[in-house]
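Hi R.,

Here's the input for the iron/sulfur cluster complex you asked about:
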Amino acid sequence: MKEERNNIKLPSKFDDFNETRKNGFLKMKELKESGKNVAGIFCTYTPQEVIYAAGLIPVSLCATTEDSIKYAERDLPKNLCPLIKSSYGFAVSDTCPYFYFSDIIIGETTCDGKKKMYELMGDFKDVHVMQLPQNNTDELSFKLWTNEIYKLKRRLEEKFDVEITDEKLWEAIKIGNQERRNLKNFFELGKLNPSPLSGVTMSGTQDAFGFNFDREEKNKSIVEKTKEIYELWEKELKGKKTNRPRILITGCPVGGVREKILTRIEEAGADIVVYENCSGVREKLELIDETIENPIEAIAKKYLNLSCSVMTPNEKRFKDLDTLIDEYQVDAVIEIVLQACHTFAVESTKVKKFVTEKKGKPYMYIESDYSMTDVGQVSTRIEAFLEMI
Ligand code: SF4
Ligand code: SF4
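And here is the predicted structure with iron/sulfur cluster in place:
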């Protein structure tokens, strides 16, 4: 029989993703009315420090619901990643207030679908696309990416008539690094055993965090929450035993399949304790090196070293998986790949081999999209997998 989660009562001020996203609309409207400019972003590779140093507010654009996909499919092929279709659908139908408020969109040439989608988006919005190299170990790739960051800097300076000084960049880097440390500490609550926090709540909180535009308040709130949850864990859970398997999630971003897959995993009797993907610790594992003399080079180095499957080879992903599986005492790995995401789908063969042969842990691959049509099948597979552990 499956064991219930050892839930603790979460702090009352805990961010609900949908609520924070909605409240964010009003805050954004106020900020726009006060003369602030906004940059819409889609990906973890976007060097947010340059945006902040230009005095703009970066906002992650909506790409997690099925509703907007019907608009996208008028222009885009049906068999495209739902994340790309969802982003484009919101944009082309003008149904995302954050897109509407964005003065510029900053994209990167990550996967094929995304970079071609930006071309279409450029027909009705000001889109700046950064050329992301597909290799992150070569010296020339670093030079190219550094140059792309300079180009972004110049573009923002010209469009918004501002000067992005080294001083402003360093200030943005310091605040950004603090934010990374705080979020990493928050995610590390998942290392506690039994885990104090549902993995669904954990990923929702990370996404909700992006809709709080007051960086000081945001940092303060995440520190408070981490402390409160740790204290509650010490009081209510420390020393208790649980048989619930501890799961690491890897693969594509999972904001759009939270209900369909993540909730089912936890309802079926497991605890998601860590996300290796862009919905979790990936970007927080490495800080921007504050000892490098040139801030643009420091920013370039950090972002180029991200372990997304669009990079080839992508060795860092395996190093991170190795460490995270050990540090979070993971019992099994579930890889979630969005339909038609070729880079993650192909790389999954290596991930499976690494997890099963090198780490000796069970591995499960789920490929899905944002519709609920396969929810029954997904649930059955998850239950069977967890029973096997
Ligand atoms: S998975 Fe890759 S392409 Fe997608 S948001 Fe993350 S870094 Fe960007
Ligand atoms: S999930 Fe895959 S296909 Fe979709 S945007 Fe990210 S890298 Fe591209």
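One thing worth noting: The radius of gyration is 20 Å.

Cheers,
M.
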